[in-house]
# Entry
Amino acid sequence: MKKKNGAVRFARVMGGYGMAFVLLILVVFFAIFANRFLKTSNIFNVLRQVSIVGIIAVGMTFIMLTGGIDLSCGSIAGFAGVGAAILMTQYSMNPVLAAILMCILGALLGIVNGVFISKLDVPPFIATLGMMVSIRGLAYIITGGLPVFGFDQSFTKLGQGYLGPIPIPVIIMAITFVLGAVFLAKTRAGRHIYGVGGNEEASRLSGVNVIKIKLLVYFVGGLTSALAGLVMLARTNSGQPNAGEGYEMDVITSVVLGGISMNGGQGRLGMVIIGVLIMGVLSNGMTMLGINEFVQKFIRGLVLIAAVALNNFIKTTNTKTISK
Amino acid sequence: MQENILEIKNICKFYPGVRALDDVSLAFKTGEIHALAGENGAGKSTLIKMLTGAVEPTSGEIILNGQSYAKLDPFQAVKEGIAAVYQEFNLIPHLSVAENIFYGKEIMNGPFVDKKAMAQEVQKELDIMGISLDPMAYICDLGVAYQQLAEIVKAVMSHSQVLILDEPTAPLTSKETDVLFKIMRRLKENNVSIIFISHRMEELFEICDRVTVLRDGKFISTRNIADITRKGLIADMVGRPLGESYYERQKPLGDTILEVKGMNSRKVKDISFTVKKGEILGFGGLVGAGRTEVAQAIFGADKITSGEIYLRGKKVTIKDPVSALRHGIGLIPEDRKNQGVLLNLPINQNITFSSLKKVMRGPFIQKNKDLKVSENYIDELKIKTPSVAQLVKNLSGGNQQKVVLAKILATDCEVIIFDEPTRGIDVGAKQEIYSLMRKLADEQGKTIIMISSEMPELIGMSDRILVMHNGRIAGELQKDEFSQEAILSLASGITGG
# Structure
């Protein structure tokens, strides 16, 4: 009986701010065992490392709140990167113009996802899996499989520059999060996103244009993926057709760690930043401890499963206590 | 052989606030076809679930094969030879008929399932029954009628002594029904007892030996079918004093608000009617008669294939719920949990969900305004909750229903369609919903269309009743013509179109 109470209490706490607690434990752990971990420069380093995943996580949160998923985000990011790289080098396009153009193109690819899902009823997993492969193919086609480099310094600032002590990618991520959070909490469409994820049929009967909402979230997904792709390009200073491969895994893990339910309708964008940071701290800390890349990969996969298991545990335990 | 294979004695089943079965005793003879009759909510399905072990009796005794049980569990029920065919199917769509019938007791050939042997067994049985059905056909490729027959074959092949058939004829054509009746008669010759439920009165008289009537969870009568007339049976089923109080209309009716002309959809045919301002128009009929489909079609949730809708004399096109709400038509759907509320969102977000424009300034929702609108409705509709931020899933059914009502009211709808407004709601909350509906019609001049399967509610609340049968309006009853008999006979197709 006592144990049960413990589990219930645990679930209550975790349902609120538990992931922030997990983050804190990780930080304390690495602070003790990796002595350079808590240095200001390293903290900004972590933030800069997570910024790309973080930016995509905003769009992914929109999508997962409706009960969907976007596996094509890494491919869209890679495509936007090489696209901009080609425009800037081969067509000597103005960097700002190239970036805007690729953001629009990324958003359009998101809408294509949305059309498959909402109009043609292709399950989100399948639609975006297909798009993941196809868009990656596009990235290889336009580059001929070769890296593209040699851009203007004004562009590389986007990924490497600082504003005061703060890296520019971190600022971009922060702005994306704030805009996303305000949109979700404050606008009509934001409410409707939660509604569609919570109960699509009830939303439809409440006068919500469900198709429009789905198109919107995949649009945001494509847009944030493209933006992240541009930041990535600027940071690495070279357009790689395979850039962003496997990012969907880190992004989805972060979003799930942030408490967004895979079924949709539940969770707050504000908590997703915690999920993003957990992934970042884990990877940075493990590197500092000299754990090699392969082992890190192994651990990251387990973290995803643990996060979902925890999420379900919290849900069932909390529902049980409520129904009593 | 015992005379009574199955007997229940003084069975009670109480749910909080509801007596689903109240001291019911009855017996089923070996080798008889025994009908259970009664309105929706009379206790038939609770009784059946008790026999299959799905529901535990609160008190009483079940005597099966001369042995007494305080309750049956599902495993025991199957072992003791009770099989049931429900309205909802329990077949696995991507397995064949034979595989479904032998599901869990497959014929094996070494480590492999012997599909051929199972198919042969089933074919033998099908031949005896005279059903033309391919045992290798997949369930998902079969029509509803054949799925139903497969389900029945499965029950028969489990060699049960008591076979429960819950509305088995609903999806069947008259020819298929004849096949079913033939099977039933043959089973009866083999001393199988059949408990048969059907809303089609004529079938009871055709196939059954005896009929037991339940009403409001109480045993009313068991009689030989030969000793009773249709009228007598209906009187037994409905002859109840109204348990609830209703509210009379205080104001005269206004002008016609809504007119539907010759509306057809996939499921309803030739629907025409008008409703006046301040009127409560009831829709009666059996489950599946097409009432919900009419509501969904008017609300734009189902496609209309032809027909016209006029609002205040002006023709309107309603292509989806968005446009229905824009025109001032709101729907409170029958399935509250799946179609009405957003369980995981707080009350305020539910209430303003359809009318967010009103609480916004520019592109942003104003939290204070949002909460205030919700709090006003919580007061007005007396929604019982500790706070406006409470998640809707933590509210009782009655309060959830009020939240859905508040959502529709917040859109300033003039015409509100209530589909089963009090389903699954306890008696006290029902009263409140009734008084709210009357107030809306009288004081705010709202026009209400109410679909209800509860006779007393339909009669008590409505100013006028349309009764549907088989997707059509079978008849219209004015207030002075209201009676349960009149509604039931229109609903079951005995009278009217």
Q: What stands out?
A: The interface with chain B takes residues 182, 185-188, 190-192, 194-195, 198-199, 201-209, 265-266, 322 of chain A (CB under 8 Å). Residues 18-308 of chain A form a domain with the ABC transporter involved in vitamin B12 uptake, BtuC fold (CATH 1.10.3470). The longest strand of chain A covers residues 148-149. The mean pLDDT of chain A is 89.
